[in-house]
Amino acid sequence: MAINQYEFPVDLPDSEREDGHRHAHALTWTTIVIAVATVLLALFNAQSLSEWTEELDPSPTAAIALDHAERWKATTDQVGLSAPRTRLHRVWKTMEAARWPGQDEPVTE
Amino acid sequence: MLFPTLTFGLFFLAVYVLVWGAWSNDWRKLILLVASWIFYGAWDWRFVPLLIISALLNWGVAALIVASPEVAGGRRKLLLVTGVTLNLLILGFFKYFDFLGEQLSGLLGLLGPGHDLPLMQVILPVGVSFFTFQGISYVVDVANKRVPPARLLDILTLMSFFPHLVAGPIVRAADLVPQFQEKPRINRGMVTMGLLLIIWGLFKKAVIASELATQFVDPVFDSPGTHGSLDLVLAAYGYAVQIYCDFSAYSDMAIGIAALLGYKFPRNFDQPYRSASLQEFWRRWHISLSRWLRDYLYIEALGGNRKGRLLTYRNLFLTMLLGGLWHGANWTFVIWGALHGGALVVERAWSRGPLGGKLILPRWVAILLTFHVVTLGWIFFRAKSFNEAIGFIGGIFSPAQDSLFTATPLVCLLIALGLVIHAMPADGFTRIATAVRRWPAPVVGVAVALLILIVETMRYEGVAPFIYFRF
Q1: Annotated catalytic residue B164
Q2: What is the dihedral of CA B423, B429, B430, B433, to 10 degrees?
Q3: Predicted confidence (pLDDT) per residue in B78-99, tens digit
Q4: What CA–CA distance (Å, rounded) separates B280 from B277?
């Protein structure tokens, strides 16, 4: 069965021409994208790492991971790297808490 | 192991490194196979053998069909029927055994006390509906010579491949096996589109669907009697948006994750709420299931539209009814399927009737009408019982006194957003990906991190399982 553009969303219109580039080049490009994104998220989103380690099943390894994650979060807090996330999260929480005029009924959770 | 979690993120990073580092295509598939079993086993290890047995069964039956001489048509047919029946038995046992037992107990109860049947409390393996349908399509396609028989490793990988394993898309052998047979190749466009779909899916699931579900839809559906008409109407719209954002998010992420590993999955959603008819809706919603039902049930098993008008209507109705039952063992799903089947029959009869060509609704009216029929169906789909759904609909027209209005501005904004995205240009992502793929890798990496960080700040604490996991 032929693969066509409508059926397969990741096939871009002129990808045939692009396929002329070496596959290895695209793989290196992809790996750099993933590596850069991973490093940046580790720097600016340490909160998520910390929350994830808190939810791990208790074990000696999990305790070590939790300890490292907490220390990493403290470091990024100290340097100010977590500030953008905290600020954006505060804006989101303000939007969540907003009510229509006269609407004071809290939302059931 | 849910896609929008750090656990999955780390799992994927490991798979990415191992898969692209594999020294042969067979080793690559073995790595994918083991990774898929680990992914599936994270829910319940006991069902990994079921997945393997199902793949072995379908591979074996297909091999026997091919090995049968052409002249032995009866034997080939018997093997085909046996293969399909065994798949349906697996699905039926895990999905419908208790349901049928309950119904039978109910009937026996009419005869008097002491006729209760013991129930087994069968646990539903995640994704069983998806991989059994995939298995059936492989056996039928081989029997009909639409695809050649595949190697065992290819079939095992096809049925276990973790991106589509638990909630689709239902990727057929014809689409994926040829890809498994060659060394996967990626290009920057494919990767960019994959990344866009992953981030877009993350936003739809973690922000829109989760926020709507936890802050509004679930509380309203749990106690419709205490909410006013406007809340109930908005909750119905909210659920329409939630289920779209939840399910299409999974498909988008599955397509994106597969793309990063070098494989192409078919589109599963195409802005369904811009449909101007039910028929169009089913061409845009859960496309892989719609096509499966059309090809293997409506046409192959029931005869499609080849046997006259009345039988066509019957076939349409039965297809949707069984499609409803596929979603779960509950009368609400049967009613949902019957509603869609009935509406499709009416639509078809109208379009072929004397007024069909003369009275044509403006497209925007047809879209609104279709959306409201679909939303009515979602009330039955979401409700735990028929009475609960009727109570919900009744509440819209005659709400209780002192009823609540709890839809916040954010909830209304998210409902509106979930509907407005259906009016976006259909090729919007293609255009963005076409531009972004020319950017240098570090710039794309920064953009990806920034977008994920924004989603992270908005996402609801914790991740609810995807709605379609229970199907």
Answers
A1: no
A2: 160
A3: 999 999 999 999 988 888 877 7
A4: 5
- Disruptive mutation site among A7, A11, A33, A43 for chain B (greatest number of B CBs within 10 Å): A33
DSSP secondary structure code for residue A108 in this structure: P
| B185/A19 Cβ within 8 A | yes
How far B87 CA sits from the closest chain A CA (Å)? 24
Q: Is the pLDDT score of A96 beyond 70?
A: yes
pLDDT over threshold 60, residue B383: yes
Residue type (1 letter), A36:
V
Q: A104 CA to chain B: closest CA distance, Å?
A: 9
> Cα–Cα–Cα angle for B70, B76, B81, nearest 5°?
160
Task: Give the pTM.
Answer: 0.90
Residue listed under structure tokens 């080049």: A25
From CA B15, how far away is CA B362, in angstroms rounded?
A: 50
Point out the residue among B174, B197, B215 whose CB comes nearest to the CB of A9.
Answer: B197
d(CA B442, CA B250): 27
HSE (side-chain half, CA atoms, 13 Å) at B64: 16
Q: Exposure string (b/e) for A68-92, b if CB count within 10 Å is 16 or more?
A: ebeebbeebeeeebbeebeeebeeb
- Find, among B188, B134, B80, the residue nearest to B434 by Cα: B188
Of A7, A15, A109, the CB nearest to B266: A7
Catalytic residue among B164, B227, B286, B327: B327
For residue A37, give the nearest of B188, B448, B454 by CB distance.
Answer: B448
Residue (of B383, B401, B381) closest to B392 by Cα position: B383
Min Cα distance B315 → chain A (Å) is 26
Supply the pLDDT for residue B463: 66
ipTM, interface predicted TM-score of the complex: 0.87
Q: Is A27 on the interface with B (CB under 8 A)?
A: yes
pLDDT of residue B72: 66
The residue-averaged pLDDT of B311-338 equals: 90
A19 touches chain B (CB under 8 A): yes
d(CA B83, CA B139) in angstroms, rounded, equals: 7
- Specify the pLDDT at position B469: 65
Interface of A with B in 88-107 (CB under 8 A): 88-89, 91-92, 95-96, 98-100, 103, 105, 107
pLDDT of residue B1: 81
d(CA B346, CA B325): 21
